[in-house]
Amino acid sequence: MEDRTLILGACGQIGTELVTRLRKQLGKDKVVASDIRPPEDDKLGEGPFEIIDATNYFALEDVIAHYEIHTVYLMAAMLSATAEKFPMKAWHLNMNSLFNVLNLAKEKKIEKIFWPSSIAVFGPDTPDTAPQQGIIEPNTVYGISKLAGEHWCNYYSEKFGVDVRSIRYPGLISWKTAPGGGTTDYAIAIYKEALEKGSYQSYLSANSTLPMMYMDDAIDATLQLMNSDTAVRGKAYNIRSMSISPADMEQSIKEQIPDFKCTYKPDFRQKIADSWPSDVEDQDAQIEWNWKPKFDLQKTTQEMLNALRD
Ligand code: SER
Fold this sequence. Notes:
binds serine; UDP-galactose 4-epimerase, domain 1; alpha/beta; Rossmann fold
C-alpha cells in the first residue's frame, strides 16, 4: 500500500485547509482531495482531485484502490443548523459516509481514519464546562449523529482493531473557506461584515458563550493526533482554546475597529447554542498527546482581520 491520503469534503471549511497543509507536508501527489462538487479554489486542483459522494461505498472503494490510499480524513458532513432542517438527509450523509470508511478499514482497504466529532455531542444536561466523559445527551440532529458516530468509531476500534481517531471540534474560526450551516458560523461572518459594513447583526445573543478555536490550532491538533503513538484509538477527544461569546468578539473587534457596531437578534440557532456547554475540559488531550493551543481571541482577531483585509 502507498502512503497516500484521501480527504473527503475537501471543499469545506476544514477540508480546504487540511489539503493545503498536508500537501505541504507530504507532497502534492500524496494527497488526494475530493468532494461531491468541483473545487472553487484553484489550489485544490494543484494535486489530484476526485468528485466523490462519500455515501457511495463503491465510488470510495474505487478511488481508494486506484490511488492506493492509506489514510482517510472524512470531513464531509451536514452541520447543526442545516441538519435541524433536513434531519434524514443529515443522518444519511453523516452516518453512511462514516460506515463506509469504517468498513473499508475493517476490510483492510485503508489503514487509518480521522473522523471529526463536535462539541454538539453535549446537551442541556452536560455541565457548563464539559468534562471528557459525563452526561452526553445531545438534543440536536447533528449532535445525535456525532454521538452515534463516536460510539461506532469506538466499536470498530475495539471489535475490529480499526485505527480511527477523533476530536470534538469546538466552533472553528477561519477565513479561507466559509463554513455552511453551522451554529457557530457567526464567528466568521462577524469579522467579514465588520470590515465590509462596519456592523453585524448576530443571530446568537450577546452572552451565548461557546467553545471556539482558530483554524490553525484545529489543524495542528488534527495532525498531532494522527501522528501520535500514545493517543487512544476510537476515542473522541475534547480540545479547548477559548470560551467566548458574540459580546467578547464584538469587544475584541472594537479594539481594532472602534466604530464597529454589533446588534443582536437571536433566531432558531439560539436554541442549538443554548444546548451546548460554554467550555470544555481537555486534560486527556493534553496528557495523552500533548495538546496545547496557540491562539487566543486577541491573536485570532488580528489574524482574521489582517487576512480578510488582504
Ligand atoms: N461548528 C459546528 C456547528 O455549528 C459545531 O460542530 O454546527
